[in-house]
Amino acid sequence: MEEAAAPERERDRKRPRDGDMDPSTSAGAPPSTAAAVAGASGEAQYVYLPVADALKAPGARVCLFAAVSEIGAAVRSRGTDFTLTLRIVDQSRASGISVTFFADNTALLPCVRSSGDVISLHNVVITMHHGEFFVTYNKKFSSFALFEGKASTECRPYQCSLKYHGSKHDNEILTQMRMWLVYNPPGLKDLELQLRSIKSDSTFDLVCKVLDVHEASNGVRILYVWDGTDTPVTEFPMILDSKSVSPPPLHLEGAPLPREVLCTLPCVGSVLRVFANRLFKEIPHLQKGIYWARFCNITCKQEFSMWKGILLPSSRVRLLSNEDGSVVDRLNRINTQIHRQPMACLCSASDIADVEYERAGYTTLMESLTHGEVTHKFKTLVRVVAAHPHRASDLCSLLAGNRCVRLTLEDPTARVHAFIHKDDGAKFFGGFLTAEALTRKMNRLLGIPEDTEEGAPLTRNPPWIWCCLKSYRLNKNDPWGTRRYRIFGTEIRD
DNA sequence: TTGGGG
């Protein structure tokens, strides 16, 4: 950490001490004074203050050199301008400070490529609102320049305002800031969870790739987000509704996703549906697919034993790019992910089922749903969420007759209904069993424990089972619309 | 002027 501290000491020496400072930038100076002072050669020199020091001079024009930690979206102000908010941090103020920009058109606003990029701000004003400090960029006399972050050695800004004049020490300070960023990447937060560790009814931050945004008819927006991990297994109510004929839902949205959208979803890891009741101004930017996002202070709950993310009134959406520290962290894990099988059963793959389809490799449900052909044979690892019928008496008569049993299967990537056809039923259950034996097998599949004397749990936890599935179509004129899944070559063990 | 974690 010594290396990280060194640049600041270097910078301290370059900066005049309080007593030497141009009086125009001292606390209490009239707002009209400028932070720029004429150098000996006549060119403007800019005195960069640490953010913490700048706060001592509210109302004065100051110059700052800091890293961008959060990127807001450009929107129309209530006046005539466009506005944009960035959060910036430097060594003196880890919590950072919000900077508000105004401009006649969006092209004049800073367009930050990635959090962790560096920004130089000339002649901005420190203001206070509700006891909190802000930086205001005034389009009449402020100017800015944006530089790439720590990975770059390029000293020219990739964007600067028309009036921006580079200062003598810009390159040096930029290099120091980049060195500091190596050890202090902005944006890593305590509350930041991965999808694999989300919990009901708590609030947390989530850094995710937004795969799609869908507006429901009632104005609710559904964001399909993903970080490569699996959401935790959910719990299912112990009481099965034997009267209900309608199958359990396969997804939270009303209508299934169009196939062209479905086929863009990744085959490994869970896609969380995040519901937003109002339009956060960043959401349209997410649809362009340039940015990852940090969802700050969001919550989630389980609905139909499926995870549902919810954007609260107090939630915020911040844009990140592929270069952001938190994103790089996730991409590294996704790219090196060897285990494609559900994270929850890596060390405890159940041996409840025997499968015959040995030649086939493991396939996730999403991989099959997005498979190029309607017919698909594969082996997968799933939990049995529900069964219809599930009572032994119904099962016996069904299996003896000519009808199917419908199972609802899920893995971290998707849910599907799969049918056990008459011919496969005896194989699946291991022969024509007594009602008691059938009940025992079905209960094991559904995660219903054997009769216990006391303290019967309210929820069940179905085991992971290996299972062979094949898909087929009912109608060749509508192959995808009539696609069905069928279990084969699978036997439930005693 | 606007905007200020809605």
Give a quick rundown of the structure.
By secondary structure, the chain is of the alpha+beta class.
Characterize the structure shown.
- The chain has 494 residues and is an alpha+beta fold.
- The chain folds into 3 domains: 2-183, Nucleic acid-binding proteins (OB fold (Dihydrolipoamide Acetyltransferase, E2P), Beta Barrel); 192-234 and 259-335, Nucleic acid-binding proteins (OB fold (Dihydrolipoamide Acetyltransferase, E2P)), CATH 2.40.50.140; 343-492, OB fold (Dihydrolipoamide Acetyltransferase, E2P), CATH 2.40.50.
- It has 10 helices and 26 strands.
- The protein has helices spanning 2-14, 51-54, 170-183, 259-262, 283-286, 325-335, 365-369, 392-400, 422-429, 435-446, and strands at residues 36-38, 44-46, 61-71, 75-76, 82-90, 93-103, 118-129, 132-136, 143-147, 159-160, 192-193, 203-215, 221-226, 236-237, 272-276, 292-303, 306-311, 316-320, 353-355, 376-388, 405-411, 414-420, 459-460, 464-473, 483-488, 490-492.
- The strands form 6 sheets. A 5-stranded mixed β-barrel has the order 3-5-6-8-7.
- The longest helix is centred in the middle third of the chain and has 14 residues, at 170-183.
- It starts with a helix and ends with a strand.
- Mean pLDDT is 84; it is low at 1-33.
- The protein binds one DNA strand of 6 nucleotides through residues 72, 76-83, 85, 87, 98, 100-102, 127, 129-130, 132, 134, 136, 278, 296-297, 313-316.
